[in-house]
Amino acid sequence: MSSNLLADPYNQGTWDIQAGSSGCTASIDGPLTSCCDFDPSNQRIRTSYQECKIRAEIDLTSTHSTDYLDSYQPQIVVSVELQTAYSQDLAKFEFELANDDGQVLSSHSNIWFHVVATTTVEHTFSDYGAGARRVFVTLAGKDTEHWAGYYGT
Fold it and tell me: Torsions phi, psi of 136, nearest 5?
């Protein structure tokens, strides 16, 4: 498969924000809200002190025919690099392989864990049977230091 089926991974338009809001401001005068800060120029997505949760949908048929996907069932590797800003920020993820209706055929996920250094989380879907058409990538992060100061994963 392609090296990256997520065309613009650091662009807010690629993701559906499921928890938090877009854009982080470092103002302690305003209300403290959870946020997801998309930064394409520095190739990162930052989170605030509360959960930022984002989800992207990847259409496998945009690059491969349904016949190819069903006949060969190529390995589908989902890989994400996580970084911490200052100390042990929190992250969690879920990778789902689904059919055309969004029904999950297989998934891999993790509960909250501390990101202590640059960490790559990866899962390979294989032997999944006919019908795989979409991959859902859900990421969440929380800054564990202090809001209006550092930003997290």
Answer: -110, 130
Q: Which of 131, 8, 1 is nearest to 63 (CA)?
A: 1
User: CA-based Rg of the chain, rounded to a whole angstrom?
Assistant: 17
Q: Which long-range contacts (CB under 8 A, 24 or more apart) does 93-96 make?
A: 93/121, 93/137, 93/138, 93/139, 93/140, 94/136, 94/137, 94/138, 95/123, 95/125, 95/135, 95/136, 95/137, 95/138, 96/135, 96/136, 96/138
C-alpha 52/C-alpha 65 separation (Å) is 34
Q: What is the mean pLDDT of residues 67-92?
A: 88
Q: Token digits for 22? A: 């877009």
**SS3 at position 101:** coil
Output 17 or 107, whichever has higher pLDDT. Answer: 107
State the pTM of this model: 0.82
Q: Which amino acid is at 119?
A: T
Q: Count Cβ atoms below 10 Å from residue 31 Cβ, excluding itself.
A: 5
Say whether pLDDT at 68 is over 90.
Answer: yes
pLDDT per position as a tens digit, 7-50:
787 777 777 777 755 555 544 455 545 567 777 787 777 776 67
